[in-house]
Amino acid sequence: MTVAHLQIPQGNLFVAGRWVPAMSGAGREILNPATGGVLTTVADAGPADVDRAVQAARTAFDSGVWPGLSPRARGRILLRVADLLRHEAEEFAELESTDVGKPITFTRNIDVPTAIETFEYYGSLAAGIEGAVRATAFPAMAYTRREPIGVVAAITPFNFPLILSCTKIAAALAAGNTVVHKPAEETPLTALRLAELLQDAGVPDGVFNVVTGGASAGEALVRDARVDKVAFTGSTSTGKRVVAQAGETLKKVTVELGGKGANLIFADADPAAAVHTAMSGFVFNTGQFCMAGTRLLVERPVYADVVDALAQACSQVRVGDPRAPETVVGPMAGPRHLAKVQSFLDTAEDDGIRVIRGAAPSTSDGFFVAPAVLVGAGQESRYVQEEIFGPVLTVQPFDTEQEAVRLANGTSYGLAAGLQTRDVSKAHRVAAALQAGIVWVNGWAMLDVAMPFGGCKQSGYGRENGPEGLDEYLRTKSVVVAL
Ligand code: NAD
């Protein structure tokens, strides 16, 4: 696969408005998931690089160059970022597709448009950041101020690099914070290109910094006492470590973690639409989606028909070259992700589970895996309880609404859930009973920048998107002036 026409970032970190190499000179190879070949080498930041980036963000914050701007002035710059991103949409779509292995149709129609909308949304919302005048029992002029928190460490995972970078950066900057962003070690390329765009849009030096690196860079950021808030998205196991490390300096933390989304098909649902939703719910983004619908619960009268329809649909999913417009499922983003998925598929049949497989491309290159439906996995099995993070769906029957809700809520996760039904009362009743940060009825992954998402239970806490997502980057100060 040729990617010669793309401007692929290499080699440097973005600190205080300049491109600088890692102090140690260390680099990290970035792979093309569709071929397994090396795309580029980026700087591998160590603690000294993190120190320098945090100092740049601290200095920029304390100088007032960004928090001292009016919210409207900040918003105008973020709207300019959206314009520049729109201008470079195709470049970003191709870069994201090449770096992550996402089908180009999706990066063109979902990832990049969502990134643009996120800057537009928070650029517009910035104008509404304001406090309130309060009545007191004694003579005073009393009011609240909504202030930025300070330096934000924005740490993101590999699966939606551009969208998750933008979600954190746009909200944090709209609120007036400065940012050190550490993208995932496997997929940092669009974050690096974003740094150029922010600079071109007029974000002052030091306000936005990017360090590429792995766990040690992330840990150095989280532990640094000059960082005031950590916005983390990643696995539940890393999230627990982040919360513990951030606790040492009592930072404000939001953690957006793993999921094991339950999708309930009731017997009254539109059968074709329900199966279509079930399929897209687990194959979207090659199943590397925290909010994927990876547990299908089907009401017994339609269970056998749904399993048959899934087998049929699975055989028709187009798995292959992410650059081909007809591709629906690309490769896994990297070898460690493929190995994890494979470790579940390798044992499933021995554990008495029927495995229905789709077709994967017949190539030994790249990190491809065929979609798979697991029929007969028990509620307490690891297939149902653990996040596989690939295109793998478990299917279980249920007999009553109560049983469906019990099974759906019966994991340690609580991120996304959904139900397919034509009964309006049941829709609202079950939506209220499901333990999840977001619930979809008659569809899946209906996400919008205006609608907050986030976890309950071990899927984490905090919300991104919507006004709630902006609130996470603001704090309230009360001012009371005696009269
Ligand atoms: P991960 O936890 O391995 O890594 C996430 C980020 O944390 C990376 O940038 C990594 O370098 C960094 N990191 C690793 N160790 C660290 C440490 N000790 N301190 C600070 N940072 C550290 O996750 P991943 O494999 O990249 O991503 C997949 C996971 O992310 C899945 O569990 C998925 O469900 C979750 N996810 C959640 C959401 C959400 O909104 N809830 C969205 C996307 C992905």
UniProtKB/TrEMBL annotation:
SUPFAM superfamilies: ALDH-like (SSF53720). Keywords: Oxidoreductase. Gene3D superfamilies: Aldehyde Dehydrogenase, Chain A, domain 1, Aldehyde Dehydrogenase, Chain A, domain 2. Residues 19-479 form the Aldehyde dehydrogenase domain. This is Acyl-CoA reductase-like NAD-dependent aldehyde dehydrogenase.
